[in-house]
Write a structure and sequence with these properties.
single chain, about 20% strand, alpha+beta, DUF4283, 2 helices, two-stranded antiparallel sheet, about 80 residues, DUF4283 domain-containing protein
Length: about 80
């Protein structure tokens, strides 16, 4: 299994975990950014706000520090 396949499987795993753990009705997309960063794109803004208010959470052995991102802020 190649590195790309592992990354894609991890992204699917994060999406399914998030939809279940955060009780999302509309779902979310997970996009790989550089390094350890992922972009979680929520289908519903109110659900995104609710998840952000919950703060830091754990996925497997990783701590997820959620922050709002906008196009104006940019991405390095």
């Amino acid at each position: 299994m190649g590195w790309r396949s592992v990354v894609e499987m991890e992204m699917v795993s994060v999406r399914k975990w998030g939809e279940c753990n955060w009780n999302l009705k509309k779902g979310m997309k997970v996009l790989k950014l550089g390094g350890p960063f992922m972009l979680l794109e929520f289908e519903d803004e109110e659900e995104a706000e609710r998840v952000l208010k919950r703060g830091t959470c754990r996925f497997k052995d990783k701590v997820l520090q959620l922050e709002r991102w906008s196009e104006e802020a940019g991405c390095l």
